[in-house]
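Hi there, hope your week has been kind to you so far. Do you reckon you could talk me through the fold, stretch by stretch? I've dropped the whole record in just underneath, so have a look:
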Amino acid sequence: MTTDSPSTELVLKTMAPRAPSGLLARARLNAESARSQIVLVQAGAGYGKTSLLAQWRREFLARGAAVAWLLADERDDAERFLRALVHAIRTGCARPGFGRFIAESPGAPGAFELATAWLAELAQLSLDVVLIVDEADRLPASGAHMLDYVMHNAPQNLRIVAAGRQGLDKPAAELLAYGQAELIGPEALRFRVDDTIALVTQRFGGRVDADASARLFEITDGWPLGLQLALTAMARAQDPRAALDNLAAGPRGLREPLVAALLSELSSDDERFLVDISVVDVLHPDLCAALTGAADAPQRLARLVRDTPVFVSAEASDWCRMHPLARDVLQARLTALPDDERAALHRRAARWLGARGMLEQAARHAHAAGEREHAYELAERSLHDAVKQGQLGTVLDWLERLPEDELEKRPRLCLAVAWALALGERHQEAQRQVERVLASPGADDALRYECALILSAAAWYADDPDRFLALFEPWAQTPPPKDSWLAQAHANRLAARAMLLGEPAQARRLQQAVTRAQTGKGLGYVVRWGDHMVGLTWLQEGQVKLAESVLLPALASAEDDLGRRHPLTCMFAATCASIAYEDDRIDEAGALLANRLDVLEHAAMPETVMLAYRTAARIAAVRGDEHRALDLLEMLYAMGVARNLPRLCATSLAEQVRAHAGRYRAQTCDALVERIDAIVDEHGATRGPIWCRSMHMLQSTAHGGAALAREDWQAAIEPLAHAEQLAATMKLGRQRIELMALRAFAQERANGEGHAPFLEALNLARTYHLGRVLIDAHPALADWARRLSEAGDVNPGERPVVPPHVVRVPPCSGEGGPRALPSVILTPKEREILELLARNLSNKEIALAAAVGEGTVKWHLKNLFGKLDASSRKHAVRRAMALGLLEGVQ
């Protein structure tokens, strides 16, 4: 290190890139979220690492820190890397003289001795310094060793952020283990659905709704580069929603050109390698070698994972997978290969996967290779386990492949198929499969018990609670062995039985009695059903905070293991959305339901379907889209007709009565009530008492609402009181509070005796954190509550709406002219002079504007030129912009 003059390369390496336009700063990934002194950002290509670092740089500068930026490369050995560090500090901290001793050293001291001197000089600066090293994984061994030395010996005023594709965590393992460093991986960098909705809204406003944004999230799997490519294609289109539909249509649409751009630099051999390995869902080096027959397949896979932005790799694992966007396109190219080549790939995949116990995947590949008998044998051995793991879609896919004669001779396959059919809308088909199983030779008590569980589940999904109880009751007192996977299923049935009998606390006790560790590995799906039952009991009682404490972690776990659109995940989301809505977190509730209603329509319990559509309709109403809210309720009615679930129809009509009653639309409410009465008259005689009790509560609530719409206050009291009594019997906490408040309103208008019950309802709503129960019940109740609060009778304690969990980066060019950002590098007066300088004012004009003399201006300009290493006024402005100290210059 013999020169103090930086090379052009060093200047370019230490210039920070501009933050991308339209960047969405996610609150969970802001600079304050990284609290450790050492932060490692490690993920594959296309995960937005550099964009995140650019965002952090701006946030660190805004907080008054000096930020040094360094772009590493393969030539940065220890000596060159240290020279780059010196120049990065000079540039980022505006200290042109920093490291002069190091730069002028004759070369006798070793690089690490000079690094110690660099650290010591840095420690003496009166600045908080952030060093950002991008692409740190490209450093050669000596440069990486130098970075490791700096991280292990960083003084207190230095924070280090290093980013790279792989390998950063191994040298820093000790720092990570002791909590002195933290690692931000690909899962943290992936966009979540709420991030995607916010990003799309920022780009397109109301032209693309939340459902479409959620579809975009699912198409790209939250992959930042995939999202950016898709948004670019949508922005170029005249109709962004149509472009999204084209993208969702499959590889023949917009996906092909997008992925082709990512793979354009690959050789033909690499491209053919990707096409061949796209035949499987997940990738392993040995599997790729078996598929391609190439000895260098593991090395080729590792290189492509590192250099090609189409892979998702798991930390500390050899397994990886392709991004869905890329894999769909590559599989389309796979179909163009000759039939015998494709069959050979499937055959090799089946053998490799089958030998390692991955039977269902092996069965699919054997079937695709034409080895049907072998495929059916593997399916029979694996599909019952697939049901236990919640892979119901997989089982239903096999139902389409399996001939009837194969099902006839394979009862175990029929059992798996019956489970998948029962947990949805295909109840009659589930019944036929169960009959086929029971007719097979060797049907013992254990098999008959499992069939009873299947049929009771079908009755639950068919909204026939009385039949559910009748089917399960003979087996209620004879649980399976504790080490059986059915032990948790039995507890789930007992909990459902207790809920129907109005004993939610008993349902929770029954769930707690199950030792979950005994349910066996890979049975998280069955356990999560238990969480769902516990959450529903709290929700039934109106204890929304307790329900959320169970359901939110279960939702996150289900999304990770089962996927966002799995039926059970969607049911968790529906319940969490209703809780978020109740807490006035409207945007969060909308994001939870986005692009999930179609799944719930076909594969969710009726109670959850009603909850989801009611929440979605109320969200639309809060946002001022009353026509959309009514349309959603009509969709719920049509669904009830299509699935022969009359309670869905009655719920839709009762919710419409509530909406219209608040606006005193009496004739509309009376017409809706007549339709509810007709449904009860038609089905009441053929249904059991539990179903009828629920319907009578809806009917009485609707009659009370219609009377309120007519302003016939006395007539409203009796049906509302009856509905309130039924809600109390069924332990429906929220409904009871709502009905109590409505009855109090009717009594107050009829005879002035509603004050006391309304205060009680208001107090209960506050106790249970039911923030919207009174507002939704009737607009007059909210007004009444406000009047009582103003009179000092009660403090409702209403909470403001929680904003979305994302924030937007301030625009690069602020309105109103140049603006100097807060920074410890420049004094307040220097920042003021810099702003005036950026407006092209003369020294005299600056002196007048700043109320100082011309000599003082010249003195400040001299200091600015020195700190910014600038040679002219224009150069000083450009340097300040490059360092992130000045914004808004045109």
Observations:
- The longest strand covers residues 158-164.
- The chain has a mean pLDDT of 87.
- Residues 573 and 592 are 6 Å apart (CA to CA).
